[in-house]
Amino acid sequence: MTTLARSWRWVESEAIGYRRVWRGTVISSFVNPVLFLSAMGLGLGTLVDATSNQLSVPYLAFVATGLLAATAMQTSAGEGTFPVMAGIKWRKGFHGAITTPLGPADIVIGMMMWGAIRLSFVLVVFALVSVVLGALELGPALLAVPPAVLTGLAFQSTATAYTVTRENEISLSTLFRFGIIPLFLFSGTFFPISQLPQPLQIVAYFTPLFHGVELVRKIALPGADSSIVTDLPLWVHLAYLTVMTIAGIALGARWLDRRLRP
Amino acid sequence: MSEPLVQARGLTKKFGDFLAVDAVDFDIAKGEAFGFLGPNGAGKTSTMKMITTVSPITEGKLTVFGLDPTVEGRQIRQRLGVVPQEDNLDMELTVAENLYIYGRYHDMPRADIRRRITELLEFAQLSDRSESPVEPLSGGMKRRLTIARALISDPDLVILDEPTTGLDPQARHLLWDRLYRLKREGATLIITTHYMDEAEQLCDRLVVMDKGKIVAEGSPRQLIAQYAPREVVELRYPEEQMEGIGERLGWLEGGIEVLADRVIVYTDDAEATQHELTIRDIQPEQVLVRRSSLEDVFLKLTGRSLVD
């Protein structure tokens, strides 16, 4: 078996378990965008547009694209933390799998593949809800999905690398409290980072969700001008997220090996 | 003689400064049920993990199926069935699905896996639980399912790390019965245990491990004959008499072991020993006469008991 074939075996086992719980996850995939887009987009957006919208697109379109990337981050950070800790410590499934021809790297790559499949579904639902609510046109909405998936994978792989070096659930909540939530709020999801004080803007340039949000907007909002996005070229965002994804996988596989095979 | 299935020479495992396995040698032949007997922390599990290629070797040489675990781990694992000390079944899957995914991990065709699942559920006496989730199964059932899972790919070698630890006596006997059947069918088994009765029942040959070293090797019968006299008299004294009991019983010829709660006396003639005690007026509160076992072998070799 090749590495890919072995990782695919892992995807198969995830899919078998998922058959029993998919209903619940489908419902939340619909509910989340509906809630967020109606509160932030329709509610807050109406106010923003009515008073003094300096953005070149309606606030609803602006926030829908931002939330698409942010949702990818949150979903994938979840996939890279709790299931990983479960495999190592809580249910110890990884310890069993590595006594078969599968190895730690196959597990990490398999989890990433499964994460990409799940995330694509979540994001397509998100995109369709934004079309129904009038935030985006169908074409741009669907175009926004692949860059958002890449954003998610960058977070899943690095969250995995982080989790395999941790001992308990507290470190996982720490990651969300001090990593994911600040990124969610300050990466340009809800307002352009040009609104931030200069020093914080510079910080934002180095954070991953900023690149995800920018990438999604540059692809899904073709008319976006400098009121919405920075003038960084597309490839910078792509390179940032790709390198982050690969580094996360490489380190995650290596550290998981060390963890499982002391 | 054909090449051994597993061969270790000077096999060593260190965790930092801690020496878990200290230069052990052993050969395990095809078709044999081979045991590692020893207390917790003796290095049994570390040895198993090196054989299953999930723990790198620190020093020495190890071959499994003639292959090198360091570079050919995957090929080795393809031919192994492993029953870990701690259950790690997938709680989100059913009984049959747990077997199915391990068949897939071993790259078996789906039709073969289905056929094998039916056989194995019967073997593990879980046929009526096939579609049940794993969570509500009893400890014994989970253990049998884990063993069935290890057998899914029809492995050339089955490794069982403390297969019955934590099970009640009835569940243990049912499990032994299954393992005995496996053995009769010609499977090669490696079993680690700290239960001497388990080793006596299941193992053709075993090594006794203590503090990372192999301290004795042979069949259960050989080991008992070599290290322990025929009979054992266990004496219990009231607590106030236990102090200095060693000196007072020092004249006994076969040797004694003083434990916290009792004195073990090795003898070839239990009746004569008891008679002597009466004459010398060191009558115990309670006497138990039994045949010597692997437990006594371990006690003789290390001065400590296996469990606790």
Describe, in plain words, how this protein is organized in 3D:
- The complex is a heterodimer of chains A (262) and B (308).
- Chain A has 262 residues and is mainly α.
- Chain A has one domain (3-260).
- Chain A has helices spanning 3-18, 22-52, 59-79, 82-90, 93-97, 104-132, 138-143, 145-163, 169-186, 198-205, 208-220, 234-260.
- In chain A, helix 2 (22-52) packs across helix 6 (104-132).
- The longest helix of chain A has 31 residues, at 22-52.
- The two termini of chain A are 25 Å apart.
- The mean pLDDT of chain A is 93.
- In chain B, strand 11 (256-258) and strand 12 (263-267) form a beta hairpin.
- In chain B, strands 5-6-7-3-8-9 form a 6-stranded mixed β-sheet, with helices on both faces. Chain B has a 4-stranded antiparallel β-sheet with strand order 11-12-10-13, with helices on both faces.
- Helices cover 36% and strands 25% of the residues of chain B.
- Chain B has 2 domains: 6-220, Rossmann fold (3-Layer(aba) Sandwich); 229-291, Alpha-Beta Plaits.
- With 308 residues, chain B is an alpha/beta fold.
- Chain B has 12 helices and 13 strands.
- The mean pLDDT of chain B is 91.
- The two termini of chain B are 40 Å apart.
- Chains A and B meet through helix 1 and helix 5 of A and helix 2 and helix 3 of B.
